[in-house]
Specification:
Layout lengths: L3 E4 L6 E2 L1 H14 L7 H7 L4 H13 L4 H18 L5 E2 L3 H10 L3 E9 H11 L6 E5 L10 H9 L7 E5 L2 H10 L2 E5 L6 H6 L4 E3 L2 H9 L1
Parallel strand pairs: 1-4, 1-6, 4-5, 6-7, 7-8
Antiparallel strand pairs: 2-3
Length: 218
């Protein structure tokens, strides 16, 4: 049994795709550009906000458009800050899962590529003290799959890498765990397929919350 379960947020603990897409489309509208295709945007989720925006800006404006990326990010965050909870909610069974882990003395934490202030706001609202440590993307840190933030969480918890498991829904999450030297658990209800997670050689793959819980507790 692991001593700590560290979770990705979007696509793993909560269904946030619609509010993220709406924020992207708001930013696109500021440049008089068409809405993004939902399926296409889904494939960008998990890469981190800046990387996703760079891909979108590159498609419409070409590369080397740093000022446009900065403006796009401002518009995106402006909308998201107000509307991040319009449609977002935890996946069914997540609250019960966290309660079960907590009652089993498993430390629960979150590591997201979402900006730290937004990550805190969402986790405090939906999970409260069910999550013991929350970390979003902070200034001076690189986005996942850079392992620095995950390693910092493990150190802050006073645990060894082999005592922790990182859980997420994308190839970025699996590679973050690999880079940090922890076990990985991929979940199939988020932004990627089982095949994608298998391709990244996730240590474990869960198709539902119950299976995920059993793996953490095994």
């Amino acid at each position: 049994m692991f001593k700590a379960a560290i979770f990705d947020l979007d696509g793993t603990l909560m269904n946030s795709a619609k509010d993220l897409e709406r924020s992207c489309n708001y930013a696109l509208s500021k440049f008089n550009l068409p809405k993004i295709d939902s399926q296409k945007y889904m494939l960008m989720l998990g890469l981190g906000r800046v990387k996703s925006i760079e891909i979108i800006v590159n498609e419409f404006f070409g590369s080397e458009q740093d000022e446009i990326v900065k403006k796009f990010l401002i518009y995106f965050n402006e909308f998201y800050d107000v509307h991040m909870m319009d449609n977002t909610k935890p996946f069914n069974g997540v609250i019960e899962m966290l309660d079960k882990l907590n009652s089993s003395n498993i430390i629960t934490a979150v590591l997201s590529n979402k900006p730290h202030n937004f990550t805190l706001k969402l986790c405090n609202h939906f999970f409260g003290n069910k999550i013991q440590l929350v970390s979003g993307l902070k200034e001076g840190y690189k986005a996942k799959p850079d392992p620095a933030s995950l390693i910092e969480i493990i150190n802050d918890l006073g645990l060894k890498k082999e005592e922790c498991i990182y859980i997420g829904d994308t190839e970025v999450d699996i590679n973050t765990a690999k880079n940090a030297g922890t076990k990985s658990l991929g979940v199939t209800w988020g932004f990627r397929s089982r095949e994608s997670l298998e391709h990244e050689e996730a240590d474990h793959i869960a198709s539902d919350i119950s299976e995920m819980t059993d793996i953490i507790l095994s």
